[in-house]
Amino acid sequence: MSAQNSKGIQTLLDAEREAQKIVQKARESEEDASQDAEEQVKAIRSAGDKQGQQVIDDLLRVVTDVRPEVPDRVAQPQA
Q1: Mean pLDDT, to the nearest integer, of 57-71?
Q2: What's the whole-model pTM score?
């Protein structure tokens, strides 16, 4: 009976070790993903600092320079 208990305990210990390995890999993956996200945020902020004013100027120009056009699907009135 004691050999059976010992074998069961050993199986549980092996399973626990395997679970610890899986958890460690998951933590490493999460850290990598976090670092990648931080790098992307830095790149976006850098681009915003460099081109932000130009984007704002372009948006304001497009919004304020209205040129109405009749869509192709709408019949245009005959003069």
Answers
A1: 87
A2: 0.48
